[in-house]
Amino acid sequence: MASPAPTIGAGSSRLRRMGLATGTGTLVAWVVALLAFGIVWQTAELYASWAQEYPKTWMVPAARWVSAFMKWLVNEASFGLFTFTDLTRFLAALVDTPYTAARSLLSSGLLSGRGSSATQVLPPLSWIAVVGVVSLLGLYAGGVKLALLAGGCFLLLAVFGQWDSAMVTLASILVAVPIGVMGGLLIGIAAYRWPRFEEAITPLLDLMQTIPVFAYLVPILVLFGFGPTAAVIATLIYAMPPMVRITTLSLRGVAQEIIDLGRMIGCTRRQMTWRVLVPSARESLMVGVNQVIMLSLNMVIIASMIGAGGLGFDVLAALRRLQIGAGLEAGLAIVALAVALDRLSQGFARKLSQRSPASEQRGLVARHPFTLAALVLILATGLVGLAVPAVQAYPPALEISTGTFWEEGVKWININFFDTLEALKNAVLLNMLVPFKRFLGELPWLGVVGLLAFLGWRLGGWRLAMLAGVLSALIAATGQWEKAMITVYLCGVSAVAAALIGIPIGIAAAERDRLWRWVQVVSDTLQTLPSFVYLMPAVMLFRVGDFTAMIAVVAYSLVPAVRYTALGLQKVDAGLIEAGRAMGCTRWQLLTKIKLKLALPEILLGINQTIMFALSMLVITALVGTRDLGQEVYIALTKADTGRGIVAGLAVAFIAIIADRLISAGAMRAKRRMGLV
Amino acid sequence: MSLPQPKLICRNVWKLFGSGAQEFMASHPAPTLEELSAAGLVGAVRDVNLDVRAGEIFVIMGLSGSGKSTLVRCLSRLIEPTSGEILFNGENLLAASEARMIEIRRHQMGMVFQNFALLPHMTVVANVAFPLEVQGIDRTSREARARQMIELVGLSGKEDFFPRQLSGGQQQRVGIARSLAVEPELWFLDEPFSALDPLIRREMQDEFIRLQSVLKKTIVFITHDFDEAIRLADRIAIMKDGAVVQSGTPDELVLSPATDYVAEFTRNVSKAKVVKVASLMKPAGAGLNGIAINAKATVAEAAPLFAEGNDVLRVQDDAGKTAGALYRSDVVDMMMRG
Predict the structure, then answer these.
(1) Cβ of B79 under 8 Å from any chain A Cβ?
(2) Over 80: is that where the pLDDT of A20 sits?
(3) Domain ABC transporter, which positions (chain B) (predicted)?
(4) Does B146 reside within a domain?
(5) Domain A78-107+170-327: top CATH class
(6) Which of A261, A267, A268 sits opposite B117 (nearest CB)?
(7) A127 compared with B68, residue with greater pLDDT
(8) Inter-chain residue contact A357 with B134, CB threshold 8 Å
């Protein structure tokens, strides 16, 4: 049992070199803390088993409490005039009406009657009309190039036979985005105006962004039932927090003089908000709109688990049946949709910030060429479509299915490379994953809680120590320790792998302009992809299990490591680099002795982001059979067990919060030490 | 000669930053700098008394951190003063309701900002018309008014440009046009030319003097540039650490600086170009004849008239009546000393 001790010692010396701890006093503190940890670990098994494994009798039945609370909410809670159930029904109706409208427009057509006896009164928009309108939007927002890109992406959807699913997904987004943007804007404005309100919602926003998405699918499933409405509501909850934050930030970024101007010319509060503040901040607000669109897309895909339908459902179904080809096709359709929506919204943001002088003395046709062209297109294709079915719906005969192609491809890889892949997988599993997993599993919970608290104390004082200690103790107290350790292990291994791959790429890209441009294009595209998509290729090659999960997580969380490293290096003061060169540093010395040292805080933040990305992806890999907290949430979702889902979800959120706060505090310390703050 | 009525009077105005400022002010009516720092407060404006007369250019001059920008924002209550009285046309602004303040700001005050504060999403004409739009004036009449103002500041032809398509000087002309659109009685200019290049600054100062000769507004002008202050001001107040150290006409400041701090500014100023003949003349003896000079001319302008060998000039007021005598020796004395 003595072998792991040097590992920890090595860890502490590495920490010291990273600048997390300095001076002899610190060294002594570390030695004492590690000794205490060692003692707890070595003796707990013999003398105090309660410190090794959290005793069952001390367990807090949090899951039962949450479930009971949910039951009470659904069955008994009342606000006097109306019950809680009335409220959720009202909210559902609020979302349902626009959703039905959007869906009729894009996918089902206007129906009369209910269920299977419904008859179509009016057909939906024809595929030509949709592709045309999207191209026109592109033309308006960014010229011919954008028009071709956006139109092309949509055309792909039709050609590859993904049209119907894609339109269902698009309908959900079309409903979720405006509500999300408006809601986020209003909440953000409220937070800007009333600091009390902001204080109240900030922890809530933190939690909403760290709690894994599956976890709040569970209560939503219970409250709103299975179906697209519930999916849209889940999407709203997921996509709104960034808009709230960006709104408050960008309103706060409005120059004081502009605010003075507003007051000086006698604006009322409402005029101040809508005529002065919001328009002045609109460029940064558009960043928020883009975020809402991309997050909505991501969530609409995930929410297929509670009935969103569309492309997400296709991927999910394919994953469950291990139909790689079909899943990959749907995945590619998601990519096409994501790219089109992302570039279009960015195009509109640019358009807003560089409007040319407007001339107003022109006719209706000249002033609204795009709107009119779109209307003409819709009407014309609609009318022709009544007579010619190929105009209304893309003719199935012309569809190209690549499903079999991929299927064959995978088969070919598996036939020819099975042994190689299998050997690789087993080697990594046996030599890295399994030993690390076992090591973490053997650690005494009390020791880990104490060590985290100690780390918090060293990095950020008593408050951070309390936070780290209490949150980790809570994970143990709710009976999640074992699963949490598996989560930590998978997340840790993946984050380390992502950092080991990503940081060198970032370093290489920082110094080579052309490479940097490529890296930017690739990472932009990777970041627009919904997390679901990452599962497909991993499953294709390695089937299910921890290793597959790790591959998907590494792929997903690679981007921040690359990006922050490159940006951090590029931000290093050019004067210092010149000074280094003047002193005769070699390139290597320049990199290791000056650049990396100064970029350290940024790189730490990148690692932090990598961990956050890894955690959020990890939960989704529950679909490929991990045994961690994510799986726990996923099982809760399939059983609609609110308590179990929320408690496990919170445990993931706690891990995220502990990691985030500790690393941020470390980065802050490093920055302060170098006088960068 | 009776002075015009003060338009804006400032009595014992204080602005303290920090928590508990209000209570502290109630218990310490006249705190010293030491008392303030002991209480953890910052005295941004300390016990300021001013009166701005109708139609004059009143310049508040001070270095950064002297509290001049805070003071001008107190005058329009953009910043709430901690204590004191601000009388505008006899009405105490600090007692006015929020609705009344909106009313006053909409119709009687205008302000020009250091960094222009133009709304980036609006054209020039929309920016200038914006104060009228806020008042609910219909589009046709507000844009007509805006076009007049744009012409007044010499920007005709740029109506449909966006702010970022204009140079700094042009942007500030838009800011000036906007502040004049509501025909304010009281015009605040907060370092309007500080963000501009020196050459453009000079040009804008000339433009400002031209505008004022037409408009005859009551003006409170903030600057950190002493040369700009004496060039434009009818009267100047010099601020340091939140308090006014001296206020008076440019002549008074140049001829008799009250403190070393003020003297530091006036030292490098060529006095003859600032001081008016009226400040240097002596009482005229009976039967003084010869070349006449206006009492409002500067000493530097009077100097060439001595070239023909006169020892004394007759100083006359605007009506041509003798007001005093200007002696060659006094002028030489002043010019020799710089």
Answers:
(1) no
(2) no
(3) 8-266
(4) yes
(5) mainly alpha
(6) A261
(7) B68
(8) no
Claim to verify: residue B147 and residue B250 sit in the same structural domain: yes
Which segments of A254-368 does DSSP mark as H helices, in order? 256-264, 269-271, 278-280, 282-302, 310-321, 324-353, 364-367
Looking at domain A413-442+479-677, which of 1.10.10.10, 1.10.3720.10, 3.40.50.10310, 2.130.10.10 is its CATH number? 1.10.3720.10
Residue with tokens 């939503």: A220
pLDDT of B45 > 70? The answer is: yes
**Alpha carbon separation from A302 to A296, A311, A551, A560, B217 (Å, rounded):** 10, 10, 19, 22, 65
Chain-centroid distance of CA B192 in Å reads 11
Is B326 in the same domain as B296?
Answer: yes
pLDDT in tens, B106-158: 999 999 999 999 998 889 999 999 999 999 999 999 999 999 999 999 899 99
- How many CB pairs below 8 A link A and B? 68
CATH of the domain at B226: 3.40.50.300
Calculate how close chain B gets to A278, using CA atoms only, in Å: 11
pLDDT at A18: 45
User: pLDDT of A366-383, one tens digit each?
Assistant: 667 777 787 888 888 777
Residues of A in contact with B106 (CB under 8 A): 265-266
User: Residue A296 and residue A427: Cα distance in Å, rounded?
Assistant: 39
Question: Is the predicted pLDDT of residue A14 greater than 60, yes or no?
Answer: no
Domain of B154 in residue numbering reads as: 52-82+97-271
B120 Cα to chain A: minimum distance (Å): 7
Provide the 10 A C-beta neighbour count for residue B223.
Answer: 24
If one counts every other C-beta atom within 10 angstroms of the C-beta of residue A611, the result is 25
Tokens coding A334: 């998601």
A371 to chain B nearest CA, in Å? 22
Sequence ranges of chain A with CATH classification 1.10.3720.10: 78-107+170-327, 413-442+479-677
Boundary of a domain, candidates B271, B299, B320: B271
A256 or A76, which is more confident: A256
Q: What is the average pLDDT score of chain A?
A: 82
Does residue B193 share a domain with residue B168?
A: yes
